[in-house]
Amino acid sequence: MMNWEQLLSSDRFDLVAKKKLDDRSDSSRSEFERDYDRIIFSAPFRNLQDKTQVFPLPENDFVHTRLTHSLEVSSVGRSLGKSAGEFLLRKYPELRKKGITNGDIGAIVAAAALTHDIGNPPFGHAGEEAISDFFKFHSHGKLWKRHLQEEEWADMVNFEGNAQGFRMLVEKDNGLQISHATLASFTKYPRPSYLNGKNSKRKSHKKYGFFADQLGHYKKLSNVLGIQAAGENCWLRHPLAFLVEAADDICYSIIDLEDGCTLGLVQLEETIDLLSQILGDRFKEEKLNAIPSRAKKLAVLRAMAINQLIRESVAAFEEQEACMLSGDFDQALTEIIPSALVLKKISNLSVKKIYQSRPVLEKEAAGYQVLEGLLEVFSKALYCKYYSPNSFSGKDKSILRLLPEEFQIDKEAFIPYTLLRNLIDFISGMTDKYALSLYRKVKGISLPGT
Question: Is the model's pTM score more than 0.85?
Answer without folding.
Answer: yes
